[in-house]
Amino acid sequence: MLRRSQVLSAPGGTAIPAVNVFRRAPAGWELVYGDRRAVVDDVAGLGHIASLLTAAGRPVHVIDLVDGRALGDQVAEEYRLRLDEVAAQLTATDPVAAALARAERDLLATELSLLTASAAASTTVDGADRARRLVALRIRTSLERLDDVLPALAHHLRCSVRTGTFCIYEPERPERWRMGP
Q: Could you give phi then psi for residue 169, rounded to 5 degrees?
């Protein structure tokens, strides 16, 4: 669950200089970007983004970003969860939003069927490819959720995070992040 963002200001109404924060908090993740702050629930994609921010421009292999459970099971589970979320968007009154939801639903359904077929067809699983797909889905979903509370941060991360077999945070201009307490 995302919580509303707050505008940060010092006593007397003066703005506090921008300090970027991306750290775990008891209630999820504390995020500060520019003059906005929000606390959002923990989702895996935010953990991946935090790892990339910590790597400070060094590529990180997707296997290093996912945990130890069977990747096929993880990917299938997250595709199903995302399909449920997209199903709720299919009834959107905005025809463009509904069309985008249908396109994402079709893509996820295809990916899920390919995943199921490949798991049934072989015992050798391409773990890196599954991890790549899982990390990309998690990050994309996390950024979509950030759009509502910290749109500037979501935009910055969309422009700065590259996913693939190796993922990297490469901002257009250097940013400083506080990751811990």
A: -105, 115
Per-residue exposure over 144-170, b if at least 16 CB sit within 10 Å of its own CB, e if not: ebbeebbeebbebbeebbebeeebbbe
For residues 67 and 151, what is the distance between their CA atoms, to the nearest angstrom?
28
d(CA 14, CA 169): 31
| 22-66 pLDDT, tens digit each | 999 998 999 999 889 999 999 889 999 999 999 989 999 888 888
Residues 6+ apart with CB under 8 A from 82: 104, 108, 137, 141
What distances in angstroms separate CA 44 from CA 19, 54, 71, 101, one per listed residue?
23, 15, 14, 22
Q: Is the pTM of this model over 0.85?
A: no
pLDDT digits 0-9 by tens, 74-97: 677 778 888 888 888 888 788 888
Contact 142, 43 (CB under 8 A): yes
Sheet of strand 177-178, all strands in order from the earlier edge strand to the far edge: 6-7, 36-40, 28-33, 20-25, 177-178
Q: What's the token pair of residue 92?
A: 């959107």
- Using only C-alpha atoms, the chain has a radius of gyration, in whole angstroms, of 18
